[in-house]
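Supplementary Methods S3. Input chains for the assembly prediction are listed below.
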Amino acid sequence: MKFNVKITISLKGGMLDPEARAIQHALSNLGFETESLSTARLFEIALEAADEQEANAKAAEMCERLLANPVIHSYTIEVAGQ
Amino acid sequence: MKFNVKITISLKGGMLDPEARAIQHALSNLGFETESLSTARLFEIALEAADEQEANAKAAEMCERLLANPVIHSYTIEVAGQ
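Predicted structure tokens for the full assembly:
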């Protein structure tokens, strides 16, 4: 069965995010004041799995082995059937 | 009033995404077969606005002027009150 998996990878709380600070600064220069700004990466993956649990497990392993750096990143996984 | 705005910026349909292809290839080398993979950037912004509509309009202007390249990117905006 085919599943669509949405993986969001963001920096762990407390990690410095210089890119976010730079964007916030640039927005401020354009006249947009923001209270906070954080960035994350989103991966949408279509994959074959027997059930939702297996799709979730595969996605978690992809995160651990390639997509995320477990030292500095946290990730969330959403699985939707298709 | 403070609003939390979630902006997702992705490549327009039909645009080549070499990064996604490289990740798909790397996943395949690790034994993870995927049918498709696409990447996007996520910005979570807390900002002051009079109402939801104004928060949405501000976020759209941020996208047009800084966050997205309207030629190659499409964006979606989700506004949540706080």
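Chain B touches chain A at residues 2, 8, 10, 23, 26-27, 30, 32-48, 58, 61-62, 65-67 (CB under 8 Å). Chain B has a mean pLDDT of 96.
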